[in-house]
Amino acid sequence: MTEISPLSVVHPDAKIGSDCVIGPFCTIGAHVEIGARTCLKSHVMVDGHTSIGEDCMVYPFVTLGIDSQDQKHSKGSVSYTRIGDRNTLREFVSVHSGTEVGSVTAIGNDCALLAQAHVAHNCQVGNHVVMSHSATLAGHVVVGDHANIGGLAAVHQFCQIGPVAMVAGMARVVQDVLPYTIAEGFPAHMRVVNKVGLERAGFSAQKIKEIRKAFRILFTRDLRLEEAVAEVRKEIGESDEIKTMLDAIERSQRGLARPDSATFEMNVG
User: Fold this and answer.
1) CATH number belonging to domain 199-267
2) What is the pLDDT of residue 260?
């Protein structure tokens, strides 16, 4: 049975699933859909054309689906915010709708967005993503499955954070972070392969070995990037994991957060 506090304002056109809990002082707009068993603890605002999946937990002072902060946003235009199942959104998280008419900001399933994390307009966040305290994504950022964004890290517009990548706390990410790597610094540079993250995500020892070898070929040999990509294909082939890395290189818009020279010694052997 759904419970809605009499101290909340829920538009009669909003669609609230079965066994939801809407705590006190929440505001739910007309075009909102909330899936079964999702809980909004208190003081949550959900507006715009926003959908929240099943079994989500939304903590106080979260704002979802409100207008993009992009200066190009036209007041009254319709865009969307989609949040999947089994997500945890902690205090003061904000997720904004897309900017262009019909565009979408999306968060997948099984994510944890910790207090004050921000997902800006048109971001695409995958499944099993963790954003730590005050981690911030600017507009049009893409974050792959099982990625981890450290506390106070900031990611520039149009950057891509690959699957099972980790961005260290307080990093300033202005270029793409390849899948399966760890980036840190100001600006951020990729340092090593995210071995622990890969193990936790269920990658075999052989797959991790291939990924580490690919990283060394790409960045610790005296090769142009095009030559290094060709060398990876020649020496390792194109398993799904290697293809994911090479595809990320080829579609990069902002260039790669390449390792600096201090990284090379860390990746020998």
Assistant:
1) 1.20.1180.10
2) 86
